Amino acid sequence: MFIVFGYLFSNFITLLFGCSPVAKYWKPDIPGHCIETIKADYGYGSLNFITDLIMFVLPLPMVWKLQLSLKQKIGISLVFMAGSVNWAVAIIRFVCVVRDLTNTDRTWLAANTFLWSVIEVNTGLICGCVPILNSFSSHVLPKDVIDRSWRRLKTKSSWSRTSSHTEHKHQLDHKNFIELERGNSNSEENLVKSEGGEFASERAVSGVPNAFL
């Protein structure tokens, strides 16, 4: 927090007193002098998205050291990683700033930079509100509705896995046997040899051929 406050304050001082008179900042032809504002803008812009990166990455190792379930750790990590959206916007804004630095009419091209600055501020506010969405949803949506939806999803997933496993097992059971002879009488027995070398008995029933008893 102190790092962010320090570079924002120094950025404000640079913009306010970087040129004398101040109008020379957007009118370079008038008499006066300015500091090297391009280097200052490079420094402040890079610090902006670097601090955003640090703020959402720094807590992640500490989260995974907590005595929580895997589900809770993943959920908390995703909350912090929501800050990556704001970080991406900060990078886009920095690219716009760099593009405009070498242009003589910077105020004319600054519209895109100002637009991305507004987007950055608003995405930062949205990312800051993400941690309370769980409490908000619990008040808006009844708990039994959420529980029913979660149970329905788990049941559907479990049924799909069980069905797939049963079908696979059924295919394997029939795959390991090779029929050698098919009988037609009541008392005739057929031998069925498995791939493992063992023999099993198969008895043909009148009117129902190939039935296993």
From TrEMBL:
Q: Which PANTHER family match?
A: INTEGRAL MEMBRANE PROTEIN-RELATED (PTHR33048:SF47), PTH11-LIKE INTEGRAL MEMBRANE PROTEIN (AFU_ORTHOLOGUE AFUA_5G11245) (PTHR33048)
Protein family membership: Belongs to the SAT4 family.
List the GO terms this entry assigns under cellular component, sorted alphabetically: membrane
Q: Which Pfam families match?
A: Fung_rhodopsin
Q: How does it sit in the membrane?
A: Multi-pass membrane protein
* Keywords, in A-Z order: Membrane, Transmembrane, Transmembrane helix
Q: Where is the Rhodopsin domain?
A: 1-136
InterPro entries, per the entry:
Rhodopsin_dom_fungi, SAT4-like
> What's the protein called, per UniProt?
Rhodopsin domain-containing protein
Its localization reads: Membrane
Natural source organism: Lepraria neglecta
For whether the record's keyword set contains Membrane, the answer is: yes
Q: What parts of the sequence cross the membrane?
A: 42-64, 76-94
